Amino acid sequence: MNAIESRRMRSKGQSGFTLIELLVVIAILGILAGVVVFAVGGVTGTANKKACSTEAKTIQTAIEAFKADSATGALPASLAALSPLYLKTNPTANFTYAAGVISAPAGKYAGVSAADCGL
């Protein structure tokens, strides 16, 4: 492009962004992306704790229903005994169970403490 064509483009009002303007916009977008990443990271941890707590309450309700349906009022021998009738899935991969007490979140809840899980 020669000098004459350059003057014609400027006189027609065609101009672009300067390098500084583009760098400022890119920097602002980078800062916003960083803020969003940290904000979303906290939400997933809280959601995992809530999911663990909800599943533990569901299992406890299933244990109580099993006990109510039992002629002798006995507790289930294991969590696997609850899965066909009282729970849709077998929760043994995510929790341990002994003598009617649910404890020690495991599996997908391995990073969640028992207190955070509501146990």
Question: What brief labels describe this structure?
Answer:
119 residues; single chain; mainly alpha; 50% helix; 2 strands; 5% strand
Average per-residue pLDDT, rounded, comes to 83
Distance between the termini: 74 Å
The spatial strand order of the largest sheet comes to: 1-2
The SSE order reads HHEE
Would you count the extended β strands for me? 2
Can you give the helix content as a percent range? 40-55%
Radius of gyration computed on alpha carbons? 30 Å
Percentage of β-strand residues: 5-15%
Please work out how many helical segments DSSP would assign. 2
Q: Which structural class should the secondary elements be placed in?
A: mainly alpha
Shape call: rod-shaped
Q: What's the story with the biggest beta sheet? A: 2 strands, antiparallel
Poorly predicted tracts of residues: none
Walkthrough of the structure:
The chain is mostly helical and 119 residues long. Helices cover 50% and strands 5% of the residues. The chain has one domain. It has helices at residues 3-11, 19-69; strands at 96-98, 101-103. It has a two-stranded antiparallel sheet with strand order 1-2. A hairpin with a 2-residue loop joins strand 1 and strand 2 (101-103). The longest helix is centred in the middle third of the chain and has 51 residues, at 19-69. The mean pLDDT is 83.
